Predict the 3D structure of the following.
Amino acid sequence: MDPEIEKLRIENEQLKKQIAAKSDHMSISAHQLRTSLSAIKWILKMFLDGDFGPLTPEQSGFMKKAFDSNERMLVLVGEMLSFNHADDTPPAYDFQKHDLVALIDNVLFDFTGETYKKGVGVIFLKPETSLPEITYDEEKIRVVIQNLVENAIKYSSKGDKVIISARPTDSGGIEASVKDTGIGIPEAEQGKIFGKLFRASNATIKEDCTGTGLGLYTTKRIVEEHGGTITFESKENGGTTFTITLPRSPK
Ligand code: ADP
């Protein structure tokens, strides 16, 4: 092959990789932004609804402005997420040893306002024996836990329960589950649940349940790129349990 053409081909490949890495970074950041904005939304809503006592008209006016701006940001981030799904190149990972229990605690904290307002109980059953420190990319696994917990809360209603648990596996890794008593996934649609942009029929008709159908697709991809697995059990109107395993080390 002409050396000039070969050089161009290599440069083109490198550019493609750079664009893919950037796009992946955008997508992970957008997921995290959405969770943080959602945490702010529910706390502002608690103030606006008078859950912490009555507000003066002036305070209420400012709170409403903050709430509306936050809503606009949520729409923008939702758009960023839906535009940014064209690329399938594996992202770069930063594998380090971490404490998964601390990460789960941290993620759950962001959902406090939302669960309080929705009346959904969230319980983290901490393991009886301490978990091994395992090696993973903390920001990416944060997205995994966020997606599973966010869905469990989103597809539940007042009085439902979300139970998170974690235990060591025989091979030195960790298994973690997120169980809910929400709407469940219709049996006939369960085979498509990890597909890109897929949303089950009972989710699309549920009030206040907007989504992109990208969360589980991204979650599965991240877990598998760590050498882990993701499975679920679900019954329509009978709740859902997602279980992930992560090995001691991805390599
Ligand atoms: P979405 O943004 O729609 O929540 P996901 O990719 O996270 O996208 O999930 C895909 C679909 O899987 C959802 O639209 C919903 O139909 C279903 N789903 C995911 N988690 C649950 C759950 N815990 N309970 C019921 N249905 C769920």
